[in-house]
Amino acid sequence: MALTETTIRRLPAPTKPVLISDPATIGLYLRCYPTGRKTWLYRTRKGGEGWKTQNLGVWPSVGMAQARAKAAALGTTVLPESVTFGQLLDEWYQHRIEPNYKQTKNARVYVTKGKTWLGHQKLSQITTAQLVQRLQTYAKKYPVAANRCLSSWKLALDFAVEVGYLTANPLARTTTRAAGGTEKTRARVLTDDELRWVLRLDHHYGPLLRALLIAGLRISEAQAATTDHLDGDTWLVEENKSSRPHWVAVVPMLKKQFGDFDGKLFDGRSPTAVQSWLKRNGPGFTPHDLRRTFATRLAGLGVAPHVVEKCLNHQMQGVMATYNRHDYEAERRAAAKAWAHELKRINGKDRTPT
After folding, report:
1. What average pLDDT does range 306-324 have in this prediction?
2. Rounded to the nearest 5 degrees, what angle is found at the Cα of 13, between the Cα atoms of 7 and 16?
3. What is the C-alpha separation between 173 and 72, in angstroms, rounded?
4. How deeply is 338 buried, as exposed, middle or buried, from its count of CB atoms within 10 A (0-12, 13-18, 19+)?
5. Cα–Cα distance measured from residue 199 to residue 346, given in angstroms and rounded to the nearest whole number
6. At what angle do helices 287-300 and 271-281 cross, to 10 degrees?
7. Kindly report the CA angle at 194 between 303 and 292, in degrees rounded to 5?
8. At what angle do helices 105-118 and 143-163 cross, to 10 degrees?
9. Which UniProt keywords are given for this protein, alphabetically ordered (predicted)?
């Protein structure tokens, strides 16, 4: 039967509920009840086993043309109740992570974990207990990674609520106390002896570690640098975590650390390899501790806090974030010179590094 507003109006009330398909629109049905009530339904097998149904509204409040338009739109999507946890994680990654972050490796790890453990689970049926149990198991071996995984899954499930796959986030009230591990906040600042160890290190990682100490950069930022990023006495840092433009003053001490490894300024080994080597051979610090030492020692030299923040390429806070767009170039260059002078003073001491 071809459905029109006229034929629908003339349909007699059935003795029991019946479905009448609309030949003009795939998946669109009119359900007629003995009471005379008529509702529009969209039905599909797409996205999983069995029929999936979505109510499109009551006729005549929702007319023929409007029902067809709704059904046609749904025909290009998967109904929310058909979406799996794995499909959600992929969609969240594609829409929220890949377009907005340069460093996506860690997020990809937690997407893969979720797909491996609960990927085929229907999103509409997944429970807080299931998610927490998986995270607790993960935390037994890798507590810090479990905390990051919890944060990633929370964001993905928030995305599910935003796009209409869920009405509530099952991890909304879950904290690391229930599904994660205890993290110790690092406050490691290198001593003078340890600074001398870095400054005198005769190893192919030496230039890289010294550059991190002198410039206050993250290891990934330094390792991404090429000779094209050097402009006189300025190092343009394009690959950075915050995606904000950044630069570093190139003082002579820093310039001495640069090499040319097929256009790269430093040895191309991965940050993980450097960290592993430090763990085996160093006095107990990580590459990121050099950045913390840089910031702490600058403050100790009397450099103003907002200048230190600029040297680290941190986001200014409060009113300064909105109104203060000054780059503090002169102050940052002065801080770089003062820090290099201090490192020379420390390195010049006669005490043997430990």
Report:
1. 75
2. 125
3. 37
4. middle
5. 9
6. 80
7. 40
8. 80
9. DNA integration, DNA recombination, DNA-binding
- pLDDT for res 131: 96
User: CA 96, 99, 102: angle at the middle one, nearest 5?
Assistant: 110
Share of the chain above pLDDT 70, in %: 88
Q: Is 44 left (phi over 0), alpha (psi -120 to 50) or beta?
A: beta
Q: How many residues would you count in the chain? A: 354
Fold classification of 83-179 is: DNA polymerase; domain 1 (1.10.150)
Average confidence score pLDDT of the chain: 88
**Which tens digit of pLDDT belongs to each residue from 210-235?**
999 999 999 989 998 999 999 999 99
What contacts 190, CB < 8 A, 6 or more positions away? Answer: 198, 213, 285, 289, 290, 293
Residue 222's CB: how many other CB atoms inside 10 A? 24
Domain ranges of the chain: 5-78, 83-179, 192-347
Is 46 in contact with 69 (CB distance < 8 Å)? no
Residues 6+ apart with CB under 8 A from 320: 306
User: Residue 327: which of 268, 252, 247 has the closest Cα?
Assistant: 247
* CATH superfamily name and code, 192-347: Intergrase catalytic core (1.10.443.10)
Overall fold of domain 5-78: Double Stranded RNA Binding Domain (3.30.160)
Q: Whole-model pTM?
A: 0.57
